[in-house]
Amino acid sequence: MQAPENLKPIPRSVLVFGAANHLGTPLARYLQQHAPQIRLRLVSTRPEGRETLRRHFPDAEVISANWFDPASLKPAVQGMEGIFINTPGGTDEQPAMTNLVAAIKEAGTAIHILRTLGLQPEASPRRIPEAVRQAFLGLPVQHPIAKRILDASDLPVTYLNLGATFMDNFFWMKAALVQQRKLIWHNRLITFIDPREVGEAAARLLLCDNHRHIGQFHTLNNGQDLLRFSDVAQLMSEVFAETITYNGSKEAFFDAYAPMGELRQLLWDFFEYERANEVVWAPNNFLERTLGRKPLTVRQWLEEHAAALLAAMPK
User: Is the CB of residue 293 less than 8 Å from the CB of residue 207?
Assistant: First the structure.
């Protein structure tokens, strides 16, 4: 049987918002290594981020742009055929995406746009507790706003829904691991993903000529790990060859993460909301099919980062 025809042109230029973070950097690195002919324009709002990008990507154009400053977005998107959009937690998506859509439409050059989301698939907004609605994290509220605006724009968008927790979040839990050999975190049930592989998958989709991805909502996880954090503590014990105990109580969480201040309650409320709807999470093989290999497991990630997770904290 003859393979169906693919119709999407490969972008000759790619704009990466959040290029200095743990998704944007591996995306840019993959494009630099596998498609050096593509013109890269890398965005970071932080001066230190731009300096890092200039060191690692000397052939790329490094700029600053602000979601809430239309004048900065127009030159950012000008002439760009591929665009990767990743907004930080707390972004007010209504003005941010309204401004960006207007700039992209005015430029008129976009072939393929990737937008990251963090949603429980098909979750009803009516089930979102008020505390979570008001939290600055706001993903269950803000990301549907972003999707509605992009859907209405008729721009060539593919949604990458990060239906998993990032494995490098374990570094948030490092202090208790080092000091007490204890994992302290909410005992949520969740799938997992290495952010480096999200960046690579995004790059591969930009380089893919299959037009059928445009308009799709793809949920990404490693397809292998659906775990509670008590399960992760057991994995850590096996990988580290020493006992890692677990405490998922609210009291331990608030004590361990006291420096977060009010953020502790916002996170806890968010995790409780996710736990109330945890049956929605299911491993899938989209990331594996996109990468062309099995994604990294939690065990493999822990083996790679064991020394760093257990190394003494700087004084």
Answer: no
Contact 283, 191 (CB under 8 A): yes
Q: What is the secondary structure of 84-142 as a DSSP string?
A: EE-PPTT--HHHHHHHHHHHHHHH---SEEEEEE---TT--GGGS-HHHHHSSS-HHHH
pLDDT digits (tens, 9 = 90+) for 249-284: 999 999 999 999 988 998 898 899 889 999 999 999
pLDDT tens digits for range 122-171: 878 778 777 777 765 567 888 999 999 999 999 999 999 998 999 999 99
CA distances from 160 to 45, 130, 307, 313 (A): 22, 26, 31, 34
Task: Read off the pTM.
Answer: 0.95
Strand partners, 189: 228
The structure tokens listed for 219 are 């949920």
What does the alpha-carbon distance between residue 260 and residue 15 come to, in Å, rounded to a whole number? 33
In this structure, which CATH number among 3.40.718.10, 1.10.238.10, 3.10.129.10, 3.40.50.720 belongs to the domain 13-165+192-225+281-293? Answer: 3.40.50.720
